[in-house]
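Researcher: Re-running this chain for the archive, since the previous output was lost when a drive failed. Same request as before.
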Amino acid sequence: MAAEKIKEAKKTQFFAKLNDVPSSPRKMRLVADMIRGMEVNRALGTLRYSNKAASKDVEKVLRSAIANWEQKNERKAEAGELFVSKVYVDEGVTLKRLRPAPQGRGYRIRKRSNHVSLFVDTKAGTANTNDNQE
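Model: Regenerated structure tokens:
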């Protein structure tokens, strides 16, 4: 019952996920904060010319979310229509490695990863698309 409600809710949401990105969540959140709430074409330009390495991964997720929106709505997104509504960066698995240290010790290295979830929507949300069809 609850699973069916979640499934129905996901049909009206347009999102993309990228799991196990090999960079720390803290670095990825800096990039996600740059584009949150932006119009998608402007966000793509911001990510394209950003110096941060994490911006390439976020750009990949954003392009996928736009494609998902176009697939579900069966039309191309027009300029100024789509916006980045939500961006989540969650912590993924941490690989633990040892680095040799002086006097027979070992220093622990934590290789962090993260999961990025990006949601796009029209500015008015789904209410706007329902008004146009009536």
